[in-house]
Write a structure and sequence with these properties.
- The structure is a homodimer.
- By secondary structure, the first copy, chain A, is of the alpha+beta class.
- Chain A has a domain of 94 residues: Jelly Rolls (Sandwich).
- Helices cover 43% and strands 24% of the residues of chain A.
- In chain A, strands 1-8-3-6 form a 4-stranded antiparallel beta sheet.
- In chain A, α6 crosses α7.
- At the A-B interface, α1 and α3 of A face α1 and α3 of B.
- Chain A binds a DNA duplex through α7.
DNA sequence: CCTTTTTCTTAAGGTATCTTATTTTTTGCC
DNA sequence: GGCAAAAAATAAGATACCTTAAGAAAAAGG
């Protein structure tokens, strides 16, 4: 997806913040190793994880980057990671791009829409237990690597309740 | 967004079903007048509205259309409507498209992603009351036109609970 | 290896939201 | 304009999930 001129690789340590709420997003990040996440903090101070980005995933705040408005989200590293930084605005200057790149971007966008729509369906239809089981299927790898409280945040429940659910599942 | 060869206008009556769960989506619909909706039915038989498509909106199941797999959603008309049908697969044959069309598609996709992400954030962070108030702001028009039970389905609560919320809000 | 910090578990009580059922109001239709 | 059908309101009891708090286990760091 990336052409050479706009690439820059960068090592980040666990805990490093790559985008803060209030900033305007300039870069997107493609993850080579490790794992990033994006999250929002609600008015009660609670974090809600929007996306995990392990190897090969791309993460950014499109809305902020494209519309030059302060981001509502944070992006940070939950493991030591290596990423490629992409200047989103330049990259989105469609008229400077060749057709192949546009086709590729369309594919990426399309897949993002499909993924995001699935998440909406999942949140509307599934119970917390369903969402946990689905998380395990979707990211069998991540479940071993990251703390449970991050999983809880992603599926939209408290860590305490996830702990309850896990016990109930184990007793089946 | 549409070029002449792939256009077909069509009148649909309130209640007409344009896509059923289990079918493979062939068409997308651009709404000229009236209003369509997409929804899923969960395992308990309850409907959850994913999207309203009043005038100028586009609605389809990208996942089904692109990956040729049975759709999980329904699309029907909640008002008498006039729509343009678009053959999604042909339209998505990127290599037959000119650059301008690709650029336009990228924009549309981008906006869809932004909208879908906002919905996820909204569902993770906001209470039912917040979501109702936000619906009123986002679709001041629709709130007058459609039954409350459809609004309840969209914001992810029961009609009874929406009724409660409205009373509480009125008593403030 | 030991200490500190973080994460996980457990439990009790609370709240938001659901379910079911009944009644009232609104809408659609001949 | 009146009847049937759909939608909305109301209410009581149930449940999923949250809050708080405390202790146990695991991880991190020097």
């Amino acid at each position: 997806m990336l052409n050479a001129k706009k690439r820059k690789t960068r090592k980040v340590s666990k805990g490093d913040v790559l985008l803060s709420s209030g900033d305007i997003a300039i870069y997107g990040y493609q993850v080579l190793s490790g794992c990033l996440r994006s999250y929002v903090i609600d008015r009660n101070g609670k974090e809600h994880i929007l996306q995990f980005a392990p190897e090969d995933w791309l993460i950014t705040d499109l809305d902020s980057a494209m519309n030059k408005k302060p981001s509502a989200i944070f992006i940070d590293a939950i493991e030591d990671s290596e990423v490629i930084s992409v200047r989103v605005a330049e990259f989105m200057n469609f008229h400077s791009l060749d057709k192949n790149t546009l086709v590729e971007m369309n594919l990426k966008f399309r897949n993002s829409i499909i993924a995001s729509n699935k998440r909406v369906i999942n949140m509307l239809c599934a119970t917390a237990e369903d969402r946990y089981l689905e998380f395990l299927e979707t990211y069998p790898d991540l479940a071993q690597r990251i703390p449970q409280k991050l999983i809880a945040s992603y599926i939209g429940i408290t860590p305490e309740y996830l702990s309850d659910l896990r016990r109930k599942l184990a007793n089946k």
